[in-house]
Amino acid sequence: xxxxxxxxxxxxxxxxxxxxxxxxxxxxxxxxxxxxxxxxxxxxxxxxxxxxxxxxxxxxxxxxxxxxxxxxxxxxxxxxxxxxxxxxxxxxxxxxxxxxxxxxxxxxxxxxxxxxxxxxxxxxxxxxxxxxxxxxxxxxxxxxxxxxxxxxxxxxxxxxxxxxxxxxxxxxxxxxxxxxxxxxxxxxxxxxxxxxxxxxxxxxxxxxxxxxxxxxxxxxxxxxxxxxxxxxxxxxxxxxxxxxxxxxxxxxxxxxxxxxxxxxxxxxxxxxxxxxxxxxxxxxx
Length: 285
Description:
The chain is mostly helical and about 280 residues long. About 70% of the residues lie in helices and about 0% in strands.
């Protein structure tokens, strides 16, 4: 990436809606990190003294109300945000590490190795996502680590294809030829001369992967395949709220609103970053 990092960020924040999305996302993250400390309740604490499925209000310090089991929705929503954001970030990290390594090696060496590596990607593309999650859950049990691997194992495939396509062009550049003539080993050429020129496109698609990973985790939690109890995520809260929609609609409204706002902010910032890296075409270089 030839453009300096900070000017790129400044250009991204000048895109329509990007500054507002960054401010709102920052507020959501800060609230998720600090908000549970503002309430006397834990996410799994049942308030036996108050009314169950009570509406939002200051009574009993239940600002978002309680669910059908009498648990505080304010704390559960923000604690669920911690888990959903963590899953999104860690799954994206898994996707970036595996995808960049796989795509850079396949694109640089080319030939038969490239064919075999990309056929493996095609085979993994053909596996149903839910089948992979159920298989991993059966082998390793439901856990956050399993979610990181399962969601990252799907999203690294797109990253590998993107990185491979960029590497195919980079390996013909003069600075790569100069490194070969200097006698540098292929592994060092890939690590020191190819991968650093991929960070622009990797940053864009990593930013796009985070909301996709959060949405995937929410979908799995909605189906009961996500975060195990007593942990909670936005997807699990949406599932619980949908079951109690008639008795306590606020149990669905608050986690769904936080989830939708976070996804909207992340997608807006990712598109702004894409446009900032290539203002002429609005795409990453």
